[in-house]
Structures
1.
Amino acid sequence: MVHRLISWSLRNRFIVLLLAAALFVWGIFAVKKNPIDAIPDLSENQVIVFTEWMGRSPQLMEDQVTYPLVTSLQGLPRVKYVRGSSMFGMSFIYVIFQDDAEIYWARERVLEKISTISRTLPAGVIPQLGPDGTGVGHILWYTLKAPGMNLGEQRALQDWYIRFALQNVEGVSEIASFGGFQQQYQVVVNPNKLLYYRLSVPEVINAVRSNNNESGGRKFEMSGIGYIIKTSGYLQSVKEIENIPIKNQGSVPIRVADVATVQMTGETRNGIFDQDGTGERVGGIVVMRYGENAAAVIDKVKAKMKDVSKGLPDGVTFDIVYDRGELIHESIDSIKRTLIEEMIVVTLVVIVFMFHWRSALSIVIQIPITLAASFLLLNAFGISSNIMSLTGIALAIGVIVDNGIIMSENAYKHLSERYALWEREKGKVQG
């Protein structure tokens, strides 16, 4: 079979060269299409289920949330194993699927199962899926330089403007906010006053909840004009909350301010984010979607940041604290430089040892064709251009030229033997 292939190639050299040129051009397009990243994604094929039930102990979360979810999700198809962890007020379930399972198919199976489990969980507990990113999906971290703004205002700006704008970038799975205070109204109840007015905490909660609502009426027409009736009752200030009546005692309304203190403050935090020892900062983490090109997504996020900056308050700017794009470009440039140096060295070595430019050219020309064609396989198997894959290509350059050197030496040997035989036969004829 090999002899026939060699014979056919020798008889059809033009076709062989044309196929090699086509393979090289195809490989060039594959190089441009191949996603670029600094590090390979070796994370497991997993789907994260996050459940929040604030104020509950880890043991209660384990018994009433984590354990029911883990036992139910174990029956999903193509699942390798399910891990669960519980902490104060939060539960995390990691569903690990087989490596060849498509990630969005896996998320659909988990979502279907959650819809049937939810009714068995405590009231108000709603499991939700984590972002469709991987363990190496954190591609960019940024903070806000906002002199003159407090941490609550910075976090509000991040949550209600910046996060929504950056999350629309193609390839971004999630913008995770961190730092600062999530502003909220807090009603601190005085138990002594509750006892004095013979009230309970649920009565205070129901009063605030029922007065923070908006309801619709109906539509009616008058003088040929249609009007829509609605009631607007959303609370908008501390004063409005303080004036909410809870109950009437002796025709005198008992207000929230009579039994509690109302204040605007931040949600309880479990930690802070400090940058360079200069104080707390507010920022976000850009999480890349599964299978995306990290370098392209980072460039798109940075371009979007320039547009978002136009709508920020005066003096507020972005400060990028972690940018994988720099690591990607440095890594790729280093590998490219190494590849070029190896190709030059190998070419010189082949020319010096063969000392025959046609033989050396036939060997050296294999290097760019093989390198370009290797990216076809990288794309076929979903492997990105990273430190590991490009280093493997660099190490394989010696192997690439070995075959050409051996074949050239073998051909030269046989040609020399045939030439020597022809010389002897020619001498006999002349003699």
Note: The first helix runs from residue 2 to 11.
2.
Amino acid sequence: MAQLIDGKQISKEIKDELKTEVQKLKSEGKNVCLAVVQVGDDPASTVYVNNKKKACAYIGIESRSYELPESTSEEELTALVEELNEDDGVNGILVQLPLPSHIDEDRIIRTISPDKDVDGFHPVSVGRLWIGEKGFLSCTPAGIIQLLKRSNIEIAGKNCVIIGRSNIVGKPMAALLLRENGTVTITHSKTKDLQKITKTADILIVAIGKERFITSDYVKEGAVVIDVGMHRDSENHLCGDVDFRDVEPKVSAITPVPGGVGPMTIAMLMNNCVETVRC
């Protein structure tokens, strides 16, 4: 039977470690503060923001919330971010995406100071990641690395195949796997003979955005499968990009949906916040 990689448990371990670290930092007079900015009242965004606030409260990180109306202009949002950049009491800035269509997300991301970019989306953060400099790591890929390491899954020397080339998951995931000495292949919508490539993977990371797209035909015997997808099927059940029931009997380890990659993203966001005040 495949090892079930428990993201809930591993994320709790990380948050408990951070909680202890934050208590020590506070005893040294060092405070950690995250500013969370949400524009509009998108239901999914509200859930994510509330989960981040809860994680901050659990760990002991101060959370400042800025809930702006849908009608907020790009100039108004930019001005707020610039104000938070200058605020020495704020260590990290998170602008919840997606933003309303009249606001240029790229401009807002670039406005956040790279030294407070706890999402790891700023081009400077991305550049630091690729050349191996110290900086904030994209939270979902960083969480996946922790899932593998804390599940005692070796990365060095393994064939690692990523399905998806997004700036949020696919590309930074490749950089982090290379940092861990994995041999990395990125596949995408223009890849020819996808099955042939994915069946070479010792570690297969799926971020394709298609419900239950990956079946056992795409996976080699004994592979490790990490499912980044999140969907609601026709029966309103949560599921991923991987057909779990079909794939699970064939692999050595697999993440469930929900309860796999999802909880790790917030845990690593909290880690980035603490990183701002680590010596």
Note: The longest strand covers residues 33-39.
3.
Amino acid sequence: MLAERLRRLGQDHIADILEDESRRHEAMRIESDLGGVDLDLVERIMRGEGLAEVPPSEVRPAAVVPASFSSSPSAAQCVLAGRRLLEQGKVAALLVAGGQASRLGVESPKGCVEVTPLTGKTLFRVFAEQILALGRRFGRPVPWFIMTSPVNHAQTVEYFTANDFLGLDPRMVFFFPQGVLPSLTGEGKFILAPEGGLYLNPDGHGGVFRALLTSGMFDAMRDLGIEEIFTFQVDNPLVKVCDPLFVGLHSMQGACMSSKVVRKAGFDEKVGVMVEYGGRTRLLEYSDMDDAIRYATDENGEMLHWAGSIAIHLMRLDFAREVASRSHALPFHRAVKKIPALAPDGTTVTVEGIKFETFIFDALAHARTSVTLEVTRSEEFAPVKNLTGTDSLETSRVLQSKRHVSWLRAIGVDVRDGVTVEISPLFALDREELASRRAEIGDVITRDTYLG
């Protein structure tokens, strides 16, 4: 039956393996791979259905709540609203962590990369300490949902188990893998992986909706009384997990899904921007922008589309579940990549393959109400995408220290130039909490210092 289905999909080279008794070991691996694949969905994609459409050539910048809002009287009300939701245990943290750290020279989940400037804490530990600190501050644990991929799921669970869940209650940490799709050649053929089986790629961070549904995690959230889901990606150690201001603003505005942005560093920074078209706020991915949009300026000659996404969103649980229940809610984006493949003679070759992914931000198109909040880059964005250069491990460590030095100087501590500082969230979750511990710090810091 499976072989027949594959032949109808034009995958005769795969069906031949399944029907060849001498290749039973290969066939079993392929059958196992296909067991996790929705072939109906693959067939739709191969017919060109459900693919992301080219955005219109003219879009408007989305309405953005400016960063200056954070010091306004209205912001104080939002913070109170966010605090109440956290005190009531109605907010969950959801980390997208399906990637490997191969670009950083490490064969492990990206969350296991050591990123802090002095103690070398991993990304997972950085977030875990924030979640622990939130639980202590608000008197209720924040449930942490972690979306892995089939490639790193076992390693991720093993890391948490070996490290005693980083101090968290294991009952409040939930792991679930995202789905996968076969990569295709330009002729629409499945690709055989060098190590055996099919070459499968994760279905993108937009796969979180389907994964939450099929894994039962939506039910787990409901049973915990969760109403809001704070989503973030694994590569940014400056994320303010479950930021009360953001949570409260989103909630008070009755938003279905909201986003954080920073002002782009320049026209060519490779981040998506928040725009409006079709009556909804949307995120326009960098690769989907034409030059007319990318280099557009306002009447003062300033960058028009400056609201760059930092991959942080808030979603109402009922909204996320509604998106997940729609079989074709999110479009698939097509990316051409160099892929290692098994050739018919048994050698490994590199082919030009096509990967299909969904993106979480495409759910914004279904949000009746949405809020976009600008935050300060130096406070909330220091991604680790490369080993060196822009958005690298090197630059992130520098930016982490700069943030903590700025906190100390803001409360009157003399931090000498050239000093590296690292502050654990368990010592101070934010600058306000650091001020409350001013007496423990001293007046002058002359050497590299860790506050933990």
Note: The chain has a mean pLDDT of 93.
4.
Amino acid sequence: MAKQPAPQLTTNPFDDDKLKEECGVFGIYGTPDATAHCALGLHALQHRGQEAAGITAFDGENFHTKRVLGHVADNFTSQDVIDSLPGYTAIGHTRYSTTGGTELRNCQPLFAEFASGGFAVAHNGNITNAAHLRKSLVQRGSIFQSTSDSEVIIHLIATSRFRTLLDRFIDALRQIEGAYSLVSLTKEGLIGVRDPLGVRPLVLGQLDKAWILCSETCALDIIGATYVRDIEPGEMVVITEEGIVSHHPFPEERPRPCIFEHVYFARPDSYMDHMSVYEVRKRIGAELARENGVDADLVIPVPDSGTPAAIGYAQESGIPFELGIIRNHYVGRTFIEPSDQIRHFGVKLKHNANRWHIEGKRIILVDDSIVRGTTSLKIVNMMREAGATEVHMRIASPPTAHSCFYGVDTPSRKQLLAARMDVEAMREYIGADTLSFLSIDGLYRAVNHPEGRDKKCPAFCDACFTGDYPTFLTDQSETDKDDSQLNLIASTGA
């Protein structure tokens, strides 16, 4: 019998049970240090995608691209790399694969040579009719080089009958569904676009005479740039040597930015939807304390994403805040486990209980969400092993019961704990004394909607909690139809 490979466990066993961030995009125009600034900006956006990164720069004559698997800091810090990407304008991308596998050919920015010149694009989001469009394009002769949904945009531009590149770009975007924030590079300049619903974020910044487009304001902070404003939903900005021109080429719709950005995805030091993400998360914790208070000795965050909400919970409840779980930040990405005993140790490689503060205490654990539930089960067990007499779990969002199709790698719905169990069954599964979630109205109150969620006109995309998807899901609809037909065939014995 062939020897089986040793099993692997990622060294972030808690993070593995989180929804995976989408991607991060960065673009800059008007500085000879464009690539260096782009690399720094991508470093600040690393939390939005850890599988791959890439930069494309333009020097006035030629485009230069480097795309790699791995982290920004491991690939874009040497002067030789920066010098190999000369130019006064550049775009970059950090990637977590939601559509298409983890392969170099799927890394972004994607680049194409059109009759009008080179075109590079980096995409944050997900095109929900990409498979449908791809099938049609292939039938018409398009040859795809990747399995990424983003490549559909390039082929739609290439086959458009409009004359100018800008009109071709707009024509392509009018044919796609879903969520997108894009930065693209042409020989004329830098283009940024946000989908009509504004599901994914995109902001405008300035550094001296240079203009910046990026996913979050933390990418502006790292290079000393100034936040100017959010790109509006449905807005296209074109940045050239003549300045900035704003276009609104799409029918106006009621914006539905992703509310989960405020719960987990965005960095807490970012400013999003005219709000401090950190302050919103503290308000979420305060709402959670008001809705689901319990008598206890300590409030303990699940690091790092649960920390701001736990601070808000502690402040509102008057229960002391303590770091009951200590995170080790100096751990490699994977750990080979030769035995079940080492597997148990692997859980503690990144997090460890602060036993001397936990033993003999009634504790409230605050986390941002529950996905599969395996994380919460491990944490509750860790707290009991450390001597906690009671473990109460409080979740700073409603139950995640629906998959996301807008650029987030969500497990299939049957893998989501909240889709399979009610709260009491979930509590029993993770082994907590009590378990409570923030209500959807409480979440809306925390993001400055004091009346809660307007069911007729919600202000955010909250589909992962409510199942209320703001766009049509063409590919998913066709997949469901095919699955139903297969199930019918199977049930009839055909």
Note: The chain has two domains: 15-256, 277-466.
